[in-house]
Amino acid sequence: MQSQTRLATLIVLVPLCTLSACNKAPQPAAQTAPPQATQPAPSPTPTAHPADIKPEAKLFVNAPVSCEKVALTFDAGADADAVPLILQTLQAHHVHCTFFLTGAFAARFPDQCKAIAAAGMELGNHSYHHPKFTTKTTEQVHEELGTAEAEIEKVCGRPAKPLFRFPFGDSDRRVRAQVAAEGYQAIHWTIDSLDSVGKPKDAEFVTKRILGKMKPGVITLMHVSRVESAKSLPAIFDYLDSKGIQVVPVSELIAADQEDRKARSLKKKAKAQSQNVP
């Protein structure tokens, strides 16, 4: 009898429990938070500062091999086709490079110039109209430097001084002396990618051209108008990473050169003093 009573109770409870479950309001599915976008690591702050540069009336072409650093530089004068890809690649590798801007480029492509400056890239003056300086008078050279500097600072929010690159690399003793007197260090290059010379060059050509002469201390030249040059950058970075060579702004190569010269001078003095000891 007791077993029959338990059975009856179970028969009653099971439907009630089932009914209770059916009438229970459905619980909303757990919300999965959308994946957060991965923020790229910030680029390192350059260790040298352009303001520390004391201009000399000669071209700066390279730093000593012992520095284990190179500077990839970009001239900006014609158009800005490659700027987005160049900046994307440099930021992906967390490096700063030096961009030499003409005043006319800054006036024509202010958004791209602002992006270059906002990315923390080092700026250099490349004249206003990109003329051959050896054909210009002292007054005209002064005007080219001043108007370019004013436009670059207006657009980018900071000056290009004291870095300067002669258009076409065209200079002589007279204009080098004037540029230095006006507070600029003239920067040349060690390796020209030739991306703006003759027929258009593909990424493979630019890569081979640069890596074929690559070594610590060099300054390379490319242009922001050449998308194929921008496409060559990943292979260049892969090579430099494999060799343990760091990419830095030009100002850091100048600092490395100054330290090397100072060390050699001290060594020379120490040797002279030791030879004078009786």
Describe the protein in words:
There is one protein chain. With 278 residues, the chain is of the alpha/beta class. It has helices at residues 2-23, 83-92, 103-108, 110-118, 138-156, 173-181, 203-211, 227-243, 250-276; strands at residues 69-76, 98-101, 122-125, 163-164, 185-186, 191-192, 219-223, 246-247. Strands 1, 2, 3, 6, 7 and 8 form a six-stranded parallel sheet that branches. The termini are far apart.
Radius of gyration: 31 Å
Q: How much of the residues is beta strand, in percent?
A: 5-15%
Question: Helical segment tally?
Answer: 9
Counting structural domains, the number is 1
**DSSP, total strands:** 8
* CA(first)-CA(last) distance: 126 Å
Percentage of residues in helical conformation = 40-55%
Please outline what is shown here.
46% of the residues lie in helices and 10% in strands. It is an alpha/beta fold and 278 residues long.
What are the salient characteristics of this protein?
278 residues; TIM Barrel; 46% helix; disordered N terminus; alpha/beta; 9 helices; 6-stranded parallel beta sheet; single chain; two-stranded parallel ribbon
What is the topology?
Elements: H1 2-23, E1 69-76, H2 83-92, E2 98-101, H3 103-108, H4 110-118, E3 122-125, H5 138-156, E4 163-164, H6 173-181, E5 185-186, E6 191-192, H7 203-211, E7 219-223, H8 227-243, E8 246-247, H9 250-276
